[in-house]
Amino acid sequence: MEPSPLVRPRSFVVRGRKTEAQQRAIDEHWAEFGVDFDGARLDLDTIFGRSAPRVVEIGFGNGENLLALAARHPERDFLGVEVHGAGVGRVLAAAHEQGLTNVRVVRHDAVEVFEHGLAADSVDEVLIFFPDPWPKARHHRRRLVQPDVVRLLVGALKPTGVLRLATDWEPYAEHMIDVLDAEPALVNVAGPGGFIPRPDERPVTKFERRGERLGHAIFDLEYRPRG
Fold this sequence. Notes:
The protein is α/β, with parallel strands linked by helices. It has a single domain (27-225), classed as Vaccinia Virus protein VP39 (Rossmann fold), CATH 3.40.50.150. 35% of the residues lie in helices and 19% in strands. It is built from eight helices and eight strands. The two termini are 28 Å apart.
C-alpha cells in the first residue's frame, strides 16, 4: 500500500521572475540536466547514467553551492531540488557552460520528491543550506525542518549517509537542533545540542556573505543515521 501523502503547509512560496536568459537556459538545457518528476520513483542510475555516491541539495537557491561541489567532486552525482525558476535557469546555464555531467535538477516540492521519488537507502548526503527561516511565529509550521520531513530524509539516507544543514538565523538553528536531536534514528555529530565548526567543504556563498555582513552568526549541523 502506498503511504498517504503528508498534509502540511508548503515550506516555500514561489517568488520573483526569471530573466530572459534564465528562461532560455531552461528551454535549451532542460533535456540535458532537468528531471521531470510526476510522482513516480526516480531511477537515479538511469538519470545519471552510472552508479555513484549521490548527494541531494534541497532548495539550492542560485546554485552556488551545488555547482561548486559538483565541479569539485566529479566522482559524485548531485541532484538539486528547487522550485524557483530563476535559480533553476542559472544552474542549467552554468552546468552547461562548465561541462558538468554530474548535475541534475528537479523543479518540484522537495518533500514530495523525498516522499515518492527517492528509494530507501539511496542517498549518501542530504544538504539543506540556509532554508527560509519563516521567522514569524504564525509561520513556524511552514519551516522545512519538521519531524515528519526529517523522517522522510532519514528513510532515503544510506546507513553510512549524512545530513548537513546550515542557517544564519539563530532561532531556526535552535529549532533545527530541537527537531533533529529528537529524531531517534539520527545522531548529532557534535553531541546533543551541539553545532559543528563551519566545514571547509561547504563553499561560502553570496547569501552567506550577505548574512555575515548583517552580523548574523552561521550555524552548521551534521547528523548521521544511528547505527
